[in-house]
Description:
- The chain is α/β, with parallel strands linked by helices and about 500 residues long.
- The chain has 18 helices and 20 strands.
- The strands form 4 sheets. Strands 3-4-5-2-1-8-9-13-14 form a 9-stranded mixed beta sheet, sandwiched between helices.
- Strand 18 (about 375-380), helix 13 (about 390-395) and strand 19 (about 400) form a beta-alpha-beta unit.
- Helix 1 crosses helix 18 (about 470-490), helix 4 crosses helix 5 (about 205-210) and helix 9 (about 275-290) crosses helix 12.
Amino acid sequence: MRIMMVSSEAVPFAKTGGLADVASGLSNALAEAGNEVVLVMPCYRRFISEEKRGSVVGEVRIDFPSTTIEATIYETRLPGDLVKVLLVDCPSFFDRAGLYVEGGSDYADNAERFLFFSRAAVELARTLFIPDVIHANDWQTGLIPALVLQSREQGGPLQDVATVMTIHNMAFQGQFPSWQMMNTGIHPRFFNWRQLEFWGHLNLLKAGIAMADQVTTVSPTYAKEICRPEFGYGLDPVLEYRGDDLVGILNGVDMTVWNPEIDPHLDTQYTADTVEEGKARCKAALQREVGLPEKPEAMLFGMISRLTDQKGLDLITLKAGQFLGANVQLVVLGTGEERHENYLRGLQESHPEKVAAIIGFDDALAHRIEAGADAYLMPSQFEPCGLNQQYSLIYGTPPIVNAVGGLADSVVDTNSQTLANGTANGFQFHHYHGDAFLDTVWRAVGLYQHFHDDWRKIVDHGMRKDSSWSGSARNYIDVYERAKDRVRSEP
């Protein structure tokens, strides 16, 4: 199958979150399965150096009402050389300090930037690479299914091309004033309550959901949650209407990057068979690196996160003072809201032998925290999929999670039944409440300190679970086939 993956970010070129990992990881897995995959993304000049852009293979010209905007198209490859990458280089839109935001504010022309990018990607599908399926991701590419549907109605090279829309986070929808319709290249008749219009505004995520041949999101539980008002952010009726066209597929992990057996960032590499010795050495090295006392008997919690309420920082604030009374340590890496950053700095000052707060981001240190921590805290309010809990499983670091979205799908709570049947790999709580979180922390502490054999079992279960992209890629192929069948059945 010929697949065009369209994403506003992808590693190793530019990243703000999990979307970048998914775009590259899934593309590579699809290519490994024998498909021809092309990844299309903007050429962010501040992040993608000239030597990394590859060679020029063409250009596109997109007509806006008052001007024509041009872009140069570069061709390069993802690491591993299986996936071709087409970079849309338009300096006026993509030569900036950030991808979407600068100084805490969205760029004022984000609508024009990503309407242009979507239209350019569809133009590439007409000219450079005619795919069987175009896979769009999040609001930045939400216009693509509408453009393809309109093109199919008109005939031409895209008349047999199917579209799939993946929702990575319902909270970000790409909502803009209605007058931006004139920049879409879409006939005004599509600006209606069933398709592009949302309470008088243009909503690009809604456009993708309503007009794609198939819709996916990044975990089975999240697919159910977003059909309810508390998670749907106003689009739950549209998602419920799509019914069987909406599928939840849990993200995979790039095992060439996140794998303690080969991870170059670690003091000691290890496997499920050597995890006890390997993690003990990684823990000691991490304690030294972040300035904590080297105490092998202290249970070390790790957390790598955006420092926001959505990620559960309010629960940490509420209960850290209590669980730090036990023989535990805590290392946190991340940036976010100033009040959370300041709280963690203060917690480190008041508990210097128990807390290390690193305000910033360091990818290599993130790997060492996953390997050196005994357990991982991820008490998110909501989590479409989540990747760090999956990294933690692979690194033998049982996660403590709120049972929502992908956290519910990937972490199996530890109890007598799941220990016996070999599925327990972490700890869940089911109400977003400080006491529920603290009770679950205490369960983990008790098991770690007093039931070593059971702790070893849940570590082993997590490390031997297949978290790679291969299974997820097979599920996406099934979705692509369903999308193609839908196109074939059109009158």
